[in-house]
Design a protein that fits this description.
- There is one protein chain.
- By secondary structure, the protein is an alpha/beta fold.
- It is 48% helix and 10% strand.
- It has helices at residues 4-10, 18-26, 33-43, 50-62, 75-86, 108-115, 136-148, 160-164, 168-182, 200-213, 231-248, 263-276, 294-307; strands at residues 64-67, 100-103, 121-126, 153-157, 187-191, 217-219, 253-255, 289-291.
- An eight-stranded parallel beta sheet has the order 7-6-5-4-3-2-1-8.
- Helix 4 packs antiparallel against helix 13, helix 9 crosses helix 10 (200-213) and helix 11 (231-248) packs parallel to helix 12 (263-276).
- The radius of gyration is 19 Å and the shape is globular.
């Protein structure tokens, strides 16, 4: 399969100047907001039952980046979260592990030691998360520190101020520089903070900037603003990765983050994936949920399917 690096080289002419990049981005088809939201809502009405629901719950658990990004995070809290990622339900060892634990750079080493040997990845936010307002050398140093500590994945934030001011090439070049810093050592997720981009057209443009610059994943949100992942903005990003693969042969992952709190919502997002990009993305290598509270509801629903009884919140740990 072609790589993100080869895809970036395919767009060398487009990204040669600010004016060329602007022409390309503003030449993308405009988003039909009414149609987008109607399709997202329609797909959200699909009913999933019995064995299909059990499969969807396990798949959703395996796609979670179990996240703690608070100023009060301690090594003990991170170790506890990592233990939950490795063994989400101690009463049922058939429960899948989560995909990753996502922490601040200074907690990467603690998380890495706690998940050792489990297959759970360690993701680190970087690049002046969550605002993204720092000079590029600071962002590069932030990324390098996280990778040196053992991060398998980097979740970077774009400079939304630069994007909204129309400085598209600056945003592109910063993503490309962080991707170069990651190299083959860490996969790169690029966070757009869709709630601050104002329009669906901007989300589409940001998606293409991220993909052309070498992102391995495009991600909706930091979880730190009022509007985070929605079915509509995630559908739009799924359409973008579908179209990008059709044009370049390169597959890019998608990560909705923030605001997805229960099983019903998670399954709606899996339906969006299946109906928009297909089974190739129904795997945690290509689709993730950025979440903290979602896992608890998935575990309670999983227990209900297994026993016929709803266990309630005391069944799971409080994160």
């Amino acid at each position: 399969m072609p790589t993100t690096a080869s895809a970036a080289s395919a767009f060398a002419d487009v990204t040669a100047s600010d004016s060329a990049l602007r022409r390309f981005l503003h030449g993308l088809p405009g988003v039909d907001a009414v149609g987008l939201e109607a399709r997202a809502a329609s797909l959200g009405t699909r009913s999933i039952k019995t064995t299909a629901k059990a499969y969807a719950i396990d798949l959703a658990i395996s796609m979670i980046d179990l996240t703690t990004l608070e100023g009060a995070d301690t090594p003990g809290k991170v170790r506890a979260l990592a233990a939950k990622a490795v063994n989400p339900d101690p009463t049922d060892r058939t429960t899948p592990t989560t995909a990753a634990v996502c922490v601040y750079p200074d907690m990467v080493a603690t998380a890495k030691a706690a998940v050792a040997g489990s297959g759970v990845k360690v993701a680190s936010v970087a690049t002046a998360f969550p605002a993204g307002r720092a000079a590029l050398p600071v962002k590069l140093a932030d990324t390098a520190d996280a990778i040196a500590a053992g991060a398998d994945e980097i979740d970077m934030v774009i400079d939304r101020g630069a994007f909204l001011a129309g400085h598209y090439l600056k945003v592109y070049e910063q993503i490309a520089a962080i991707k170069a810093e990651c190299g083959d050592r860490a996969r790169l997720k690029v966070i757009f903070e869709t709630g601050e981009l104002s329009t669906y057209d901007n989300i589409r443009r940001a998606s293409w900037i991220g993909m052309m610059a070498g992102a391995d994943f495009i991600k909706t949100s930091t979880g730190k603003v009022a509007v985070n992942a929605t079915p509509a903005n995630t559908l739009l990003m799924l359409e973008a990765v579908r179209d990008f693969r059709a044009q370049t042969g390169v597959q890019i992952g998608v990560k909705p983050a923030g605001g997805i709190r229960n099983t019903k919502e998670a399954i709606k997002f899996l339906v969006l994936v299946n109906e928009t990009v297909g089974e190739d993305w129904l795997d945690n290598h290509w689709f993730r949920f950025g979440a903290s509270s979602l896992l608890n509801d998935l575990l309670m629903q999983r227990q209900k399917l297994a026993t016929g009884r709803y266990s309630g919140p005391d069944y799971v740990t409080v994160d």
